[in-house]
Amino acid sequence: MSLVLKNATVLGKDMSLKKTDIFVEGDRIVDFAMGDEMNLDGMIVMPGLINTHTHAAMTLFRGIAEDVDLNDWLFNYIFPREDKLTEDDVYTGSLAGFMEMVRHGITTFVDMYFHEDAIYQAAKDIGIRGIVARGLADTDGKGERKLHLAEDFAKKHIDDPLVKGGFGPHALYTCSMPYFKDAVDTAKKYSLPLTFHLLESPKERENFKKNGMEAVDFLDSIGAFYERTIIAHGTHLDRKELELISERGSTLSYNPSSNAKLGNGIAPIIQALDLGVNVTFGTDSAASNNALNIFDEMKFGILLQRAKERDPKLIKVEEAIKMATSNAKKALPFDIGSLEAGMLADLIVIDPHDISTIPSDKILSHIVYSFDTPAIKKVMIGGRWIYDEGFITVDEKKVIEDFEKVYTDLNSRI
Ligand code: NI
User: Fold this and answer.
1) Looking at residue 74, what is its pLDDT?
2) How far is the CA of 195 from the centre of ligand 1 (A)?
C-alpha cells in the first residue's frame, strides 16, 4: 500500500515542527511514494509512544488491590489470581490492555507475562507492535519448561515484523541465580530483549545481599546488562550502579506511577540521565498504575523529579518526549521512535485545536503537561490505520462485553 499524508506538521527527531508530506510504502516511511492522499493540514504528526514495561493482561486485575505494599499486593492478590488465568483470559485481558494503549497513542509495547501465544494473538488482532517477553520464574519448580516455551516462541516469531519474543526473568526474588543466567544466555543467543524487575522496592537490596553480593554485581557477572536489556523500575539503584548500566548500554524503564502508588519510592532519574543512562517510560500493569497511558507517565514522572530535587529546570519537554519515543529504539529490534525515511510508519495524528492543546503554537509543552486523549485523532502502526476516532481493527463494544464476562468468570473461580 502507498499513502501520502499531505501537509502534516511533523515533529522531527530534533524536536522541531515542520510542515511536510509523509510518504508511506508498505510498513515504512520512504523518501517518495505515489498513492492515496490524505490531507492532514492543521494536524500534528508525531511518532507513536513506546511503553517499555507492561503486563497488558492485568487489566483484569485493575482496582482489585489498592492501598497495599508490593509484597502484599504480589503474594496475596496477584499470584493467587494468576494461578487461575487461562489462555482465553489472557487473550481478552491483553486485547483490552492494547486497546487502551493505542487509544493513548502507544504504538509499541514491551510486555512481560505468560500464555505468550494468547498475548501474541491479541497484539496481531489489533495490529500493535511489541515484544512479548515470556515471564520466567522457577520458584514453582517449572522454570526449565517455561524457558523452553519462551525459546520456542522467540524462534517461531523471530522474523515477524510486528510482534517478536523476548525473555522476562521476573525478578531476583522469583528466579534462582543459575536460572536467571540461563534466561540471560538464551536472550543473547537470539539478540532479543531481556527485561526484568530490579530493585523496585526498598527491601530488595538487603534481601539479595544474603547471597553474599549485591544484586547488580551478580547480574553484571552473568552478563545481564547488554544493549537489548530493559531494566524495569530500578527505583533504588545507586550512583555506581547507574554508571555501570550506562557503560553497558542498557535501558532503564522509568515507571513513576506504579512506583509511587505502591509506595516504592522515586527512581534516581536525574542522576541516571546525567550519567548517560538510556531512560524510557513504562506504565507497568493496570493493577499497579492503574492506567496504561505514557502521556500520564511523562507528566507525573517529570513533576516527581522536580519536586524531589526542588528544581524547576530539570527534564525539558524535548527530552521527555525523546524518553517516550526515540530512546526505546536502542533496546528494541524495530526501526521505531522517529519519523524519517527508512523508519517504520508508527505515528499518531494530533489535533492541536483540542481543548487540552490550546494555544496551539505551544504544542510540545502541551504534549507533556496538559495533553488529553481526545486530542489523538488517528493512530497508524506499520503503515496501517489502527484507530481513526474509533478502533478500526477490533470491535470495541464486543471486547468490553467479553472482558466483563471473563472478569466475572475468573472471580467465580478464585
Ligand atoms: Ni512490572
Assistant:
1) 86
2) 10
